[in-house]
Amino acid sequence: MTFSATVLTLYPEMFPGPLGVSLSGDALARGVWSLEAKSIRDHGLGRHRTVDDTPAGGGVGMVLRCDVLAAALDAAAPPSDPRPRLLMSPRGRPLRQERVRALSAGPGVVLVCGRFEGVDERVIEGRGLEEVSIGDYVLSGGEIAAMVLLDACVRLLPGVMGKEASGHDESFEGNLLEYPHYTRPREWEGRTIPDALLSGNHAAIEKWRREQAERITRERRPDLLER
Ligand code: ADE
Asked: Which Gene Ontology BP annotations are present (predicted)?
């Protein structure tokens, strides 16, 4: 089954962008996943293909119209489409690896990229859009956020990552950040590789890595240990 991604955006020319390169780009070319970027403006109103208007109640900025976005959504993904519909937004629930895993095991995603000050709330309700954030900072639009979500999903699809890289002790698999890595040379600018890693003792190596992963997680992300 192919993981199918549809992105609704005012800037379809931004896609595939970085997703067309490297791991995700190779997988795209091999048909492991598919990507279509649809222009919301194709459903804009009038000669100027207007997609936005001023906020009800006043205030700065512009709001994406509900009728325009609904038309774009209905054309790209009819109600029978089983894929979750996500609206990239700093107001959404934060994206975590657990959710990425679940999405990547499904049929794909329909992603809506917000722009302007926001999207008319009625289309979020009326089309069952789930808001998803990629972090506590504000981007100028949802496109890069959509690319982040897709990259995270695609690398988990069967056959995308090499066997080595798909290991279970990566950061966030098991709520621990990754332990430190080393390779040759054995000494560099007076810094050496920790003895445990050179011992050849597999159990000692595993123990060292576990301790380091726990130390780094405690220092940087104590919140992960409480989950
Ligand atoms: N659009 C703007 N900022 C965003 C964020 N942090 N996450 C997802 N979409 C966004």
From this structure: tRNA N1-guanine methylation
Domain spanning 3-154 has what CATH number? 3.40.1280.10
What kind of fold does domain 169-225 have according to CATH? Trp Operon Repressor; Chain A (1.10.1270)
132 C-alpha to center of ligand 1: Å? Answer: 8
Residue positions forming the annotated binding site for S-adenosyl-L-methionine: 114, 134-139
CA of 136 to the centre of ligand 1 (A): 8
ipTM: 0.99
pTM of the model: 0.95
CA–centroid distance, 135 to ligand 1, in Å, is 7
Instruction: Report the C-alpha dihedral over residues 21, 26, 32, 36, rounded to 10 degrees.
Output: 30
pLDDT digits (tens, 9 = 90+) for 50-61: 999 999 999 999
Residue 185: cis peptide before it, omega within 30 degrees of 0: yes
For 194, which DSSP code? Answer: -
